[in-house]
Amino acid sequence: MGFWQPAPLETLAGQADEVELKVVVPRRDGRSLGVDLDRGPARRVYFLDTPGLDLYRHGVIVRFRDRPRRRDDAVVKLRPVVPGRVPGWLRQTDRFQMEIDALPGHAVCSGALKERLGRHDVSRAVAAGRPLTRLLSARQRKLLAKYSPEGAGPDDLVVYGPIDVRCNNVRLRGLDRGLTAERWRFPDGSDLLELSTRCAVDEAVAVAKRVTAALRAYGIAPAAQQPTKTEMALLA
User: Fold this and answer.
1) Element (H or E) spanning 31, and its range?
2) Which one, of 100, 73, 55, 40, lies nearest residue 233 by Cα?
3) Greatest CA separation found in the chain?
4) What's the rounded Cα separation, in Å, for the pair 152 and 149?
5) Backbone CA torsion sign across 168, 172, 178, 179
6) 194 - beta bridge partners?
7) 48 CB contacts (<8 Å, ≥6 apart)?
8) CA distance 152 to 26
9) Of 38 and 145, more confident
10) Distances (CA, A) of 198 to 19, 71, 126, 180
11) Alpha-carbon gap, residue 131 to 3, rounded angstroms
């Protein structure tokens, strides 16, 4: 049946147009793919949450990416999200994107409001000791205020990170699409290697089977644990 079981994907099929298929694999498998995990475009990722992770526990994620060669960005994400319960002002925002995040044995619909920042905005704020929340747009602050639990206001948030991320594009024999290989190195020294690809919802089951077959041909299987990158960043 492949690494991704079809039932979770089919259950959520009506909730979004796109699926991101993700699988965490042992770090050594990067060599099987010919990927140097210490090379590739670098970025530094920061999350915001309370010391007790109140946002995360209520399905709210705040993330900033410092991308030296590209514009930085800020994201406020809801995971899980029920599309029918998203308020009208948010549904009508073209930058609010809903997709299905699928890991082996688990899938969830998420919604993200992303805003592009200027180059070096994140690193300059960090160096100056300015709160990263000042980089959020008015719509992002409105979203955060609506879904944050009591006691998780902007002044209650602390920084988790930076997390060093390296990204590589991977092409596999016999696969008609590329994969993204992301190596995340967390402040405690632990690593996570995730492979992913995006596709339309109605293609997800077929794409999952093809990706599984291609990875198996390289001797690659999912790691025993399948944490999300956010989970590792906040709980590691």
Assistant:
1) helix 29-32
2) 55
3) 51
4) 6
5) negative
6) 24, 182
7) 55, 62, 63, 64, 132, 133, 157, 158, 159, 160
8) 35
9) 145
10) 6, 22, 32, 9
11) 40
d(CA 60, CA 49): 9
Asked whether 177 and 187 are in contact (CB, 8 A), the reply is: no
Cis peptide leading into 222, omega within 30 of 0? no
Determine the Cα–Cα distance for residues 137 and 88; give it in Å rounded to an integer: 18
Strand partners, 8: none
81, two tokens = 């999200």
Residue with tokens 């093809």: 210
> Kind of pairing, strands 96-103 and 60-66?
unpaired
* Amino acid letter for position 146: K
Contact 154, 17 (CB under 8 A): no
Structural element, H or E, at residue 72: none
pLDDT in tens, 51-109: 999 999 999 999 999 998 899 999 999 999 988 888 888 888 888 999 999 999 889 99
